[in-house]
Amino acid sequence: MAAITSADAAPDDAPYGGFEAILSTPALDRDGDQLRTSEWKTPLPEHITVDIDHEMSVRGTVGSATPYLDDDGNLRIRAQFASTATAQEVRTLVKEGHVRTVSVAFMTDKSALKDGRPSREVLNAGIVAVPSNREALILSAKSATEPYGPDADYADPGFQPDKRKRYPLRDAEEVRTAWDYVHQQRNRRPYTAEQLTHIESKIRAAAHRYGVELDDSKALAGMVDVKAGARNSASDQALIQSIHDASGQLGAACVPGDDTGYEDGANMRAVAAAETKSADTPAVLDFQTFLARLSALLTEATTASPNSAGTPQDSHGESATSPADPPADAAPQGPADAAGDAAVAAEESGDAVAAAQAELHARLALASLAEDALSDEIH
């Protein structure tokens, strides 16, 4: 069997690699057949699939090809590999010279005899380890390259492990597309914060060049809202989020503020900040840790602000009392205290349902109080 001569020459429209090969010759093959040039049904198809070992399935397809007859009567193909992982694995085997042969799949129409010879329709090309025709060889292979050539401008110069360039910036439409794609969470995961900064800077520069106005709201799409430069640690932020979620489940509602922090750019790199912390910060605190931190924060909050439970105050900041109020020297009782007393009373009465309901209301009051205290730290 002849050896393959490998070279970086193949179809120009093969961004993921390609090859040229002799698919069949008039020589006698291992099956005792001789596929003559005149027997091929013409015109040849413009497109056939290339698969592994003539699997003849979508799953086994690794590319496509255009067949043609050369001046010597050989059936040849110009083939392009697909971008799939399997196709690129096969391309590597071909490029490195481990697999060097191909085979043709055809259908014989014996009813259309020409001078006593059948007509054969080309169906498929297979990359195989052992071909029927000893001369069915891959002549040249092409490495995978960037889709638009080496001189095209890309936002990603090849940061990912496969070193492929991504996000071409050849016109205004591609700039908008690149901006949209790079702000989708799944597309950001392979990059570091520094790489994302580089990519976004390239897109912004191209946008300026083409007069494109970018939608900065894309920077917030699908991102975790963690404010840059916040005084709280990542674990405190997780606690705040846990309290917020628990309060929401128990019926509490958020009150929107006038200042979202968006205009000053504080949230612009939120996803990068969140992802750099995700490796060592649990997304949700375990229950015992939650209770311990909640208890500490409640103690601090109630000590610092004895009137935070909601006791009405007069214009001098002193608690207003009425004949029905408790003695002046008694500690003010807020919603959390009242709900706690109700829970204890229900439990002592032996009413399990009432006790559970009262405890639920107590937890709501505690969570709301803690969230208020923590929110004061942030804002």
From TrEMBL:
Residues 303-353 are annotated as: Disordered. Residues 58-139 form the Prohead serine protease domain. Keywords: Hydrolase, Protease, Viral release from host cell. Residues 303-321 have a biased composition (Polar residues). GO terms for molecular function: peptidase activity. One of its GO terms (biological process) is proteolysis. Residues 327-353 have a biased composition (Low complexity). InterPro entries: DUF6582, Peptidase_S78_dom. Pfam families: DUF6582, Peptidase_S78. This is Prohead serine protease domain-containing protein. It comes from Nocardia terpenica.
